[in-house]
Amino acid sequence: TMKFHELQALIQGMTRKEANEIADCAGVGQTTIAHIRKGRTGNPRVETVEKLIAVLGSRRKSRKAKAEAA
Fold first, then answer.
1. pLDDT at residue 68 above 80?
2. d(CA 22, CA 41)
3. Is a pLDDT exceeding 80 seen at residue 60?
């Protein structure tokens, strides 16, 4: 299971555009994900973290499947 600091590190490594796309897919506000990226949110709601992890997990699986098909 991914921990918040791991999620935060992934988001901090994204561009603003990438992070906003994740936020939109997860149904999380862009302000919220911006605060996570900038380290301003140290304790977000559990459902926010779960939504972001679900989207990131599905994107990872999609990328892995594409790489294996190539």
1. no
2. 17
3. no
CA dihedral of 15, 47, 8, 59, whole degrees rounded to 10: -50
Which helix (H) or strand (E) is 21 found in, with range? helix 16-26
Task: Give the helix, strand, coil percentages of the chain, each rounded to 5.
Answer: 75, 0, 25
33-44 confidence digits (pLDDT tens): 999 999 998 788
As a whole number of angstroms, the distance between CA 21 and CA 15 comes to: 10
Query: What's the rounded Cα separation, in Å, for the pair 20 and 35?
Result: 12
Backbone angles phi, psi at 52, to 5 degrees: -65, -45
